[in-house]
Amino acid sequence: MPHIAIISSSIRAGRLSNRVALYFKNFLETNQLASAEILDLAEYQFPIFEERLKLMQNAPANAVEFATKIKQADGVIIVAPEYNGSFPASLKNVIDLLNEEWKRKPIAFSTVSAGAFGGMQLITNLQFVLWKMQAWTVPAMFPVPKVQEAFDANGTPSDAAGTDKRAGVFINELLWCIEAAKRMKN
């Protein structure tokens, strides 16, 4: 069974995007599609990094732990809220921290906003940054408009059937990319 790291990228007080990360962990495990772990950037409390991890002389233990979890994951789901048409600085910070860990890693995006467009404006920026890191960005996306209405604090969707149907398509695309990546390594 594949292992998927879910990055909950918002560190704001009162954030709503973490609800979507909770949903994906539950969806993956309940449907026995993959094991899943949420890497919550709010819990890591990373400083602004001045150098890539591999070049640090005294790397913080939590940064090494984060890098190891990304490296060991078969795939990654990034849950990112839209901040002023882009993604959070906390996410850019950890993307730039790593290097080899992103290379050829299947990564799927779930974009989130309180408005009607579901964070879709951040896709271009995020995808470009990860392409530069040589990540494999999955073509399927999971936008969540009006997240405050779509999910409760525990990650339970207001429209369970519709959300699960969309999530199934999204996750199946990620799982396909994970399997293809494994086959290409052999």
In summary, what is this structure?
This protein has a single domain, classed as Flavodoxin domain (Rossmann fold, 3-Layer(aba) Sandwich), CATH 3.40.50. It has seven helices and five strands; from the N terminus they run E-H-E-H-H-E-H-E-H-E-H-H.
Secondary-structure blueprint:
Blueprint: E1 3-8, H1 18-30, E2 35-40, H2 41-44, H3 61-72, E3 75-81, H4 89-97, E4 106-112, H5 123-132, E5 136-141, H6 147-150, H7 160-185
Parallel strand pairs: 1-2, 1-3, 3-4, 4-5
Please tell me about this protein's structure:
By secondary structure, the chain is of the alpha/beta class. It has a single domain, classed as Flavodoxin domain (Rossmann fold, 3-Layer(aba) Sandwich). It has seven helices and five strands. It has helices at residues 18-30, 41-44, 61-72, 89-97, 123-132, 147-150, 160-185, and strands at residues 3-8, 35-40, 75-81, 106-112, 136-141. It starts with a strand and ends with a helix. The mean pLDDT is 95.
